[in-house]
Amino acid sequence: MAVVMGYYLETSSRSGSSLSAVLRNEGVNAGQILRVVYYMHANGTSYFFVMNVGNMRVVIRQCYEGTSAVNCVLATPPPDPQKIQPPVIVPERIYLLTVPGNATSLVLETTTENMIQLSGDS
Predict the structure, then answer these.
(1) CB 57 within 8 A of CB 90
(2) pLDDT for 10 beyond 60
(3) What is the pTM of this model?
(4) How many other CB atoms sit within 10 Å of the CB of residue 87?
(5) Structural domain spans, the chain
(6) How many whole angstroms separate alpha carbon 25 and alpha carbon 1?
(7) pLDDT band at 79 (very low <50, low <70, confident <90, very high)
(8) Between 1.10.10, 1.20.1250, 2.50.20, 2.60.40, what CATH number should domain 32-119 receive?
């Protein structure tokens, strides 16, 4: 694996592409990419406003804060949030993901067994 990655890094640097840009493009092509468009914490709850910028829907199986499973609720954004069940995020729409507590980072496990990290810091 290290040899392949080393070759990949050298080949990428020669072509002028950074590894992060290549991986980001591959992720978008894979279809399950979420972007945090706004984050806030109020009244003991963390609010992640997310948008699917990929080309495939994301179905959330479980949310994690660190390695611990946490309860998360997917809803339409305000002013009239409506819970979405099953939790499906389709491309090009903004959703509200709420988590009890002061979470600034979450990992979403999808039904296709992908792990997507969300961060309120960025």
Answers:
(1) yes
(2) no
(3) 0.74
(4) 21
(5) 1-30, 32-119
(6) 21
(7) very high
(8) 2.60.40
